[in-house]
Specification:
103 residues; 57% helix; mainly alpha
Length: 103
Amino acid sequence: MARRSKDWNVGLAQDLQNQEFAREFLLSAIEEGVPIQAALAKVIRATGVKEFAAKVGMASPNVLRAINRRYNPTQRTLNRLLRPFKLRLSLASIEAAKGRRAA
């Protein structure tokens, strides 16, 4: 995997401060198979953990714990973190392809 330059990461962090850009970033990351916690961590750290925690009404250590891959946050917690981006977790059925049976 190619390494990103420091300038690229700085530019991304600046772009992620834009609410609409951050929303699209999260949607694209999930679509590409990036874990929700990893995508949220990138956005929250770009925003600033303390500022984001104040926005969602959580303590900073709890926000950090929720985006840490070693922890397993509840759906309620993840929805709380996604709310500023006008997103929430949900389930959708997957239609089986014609002629194939779902396992």
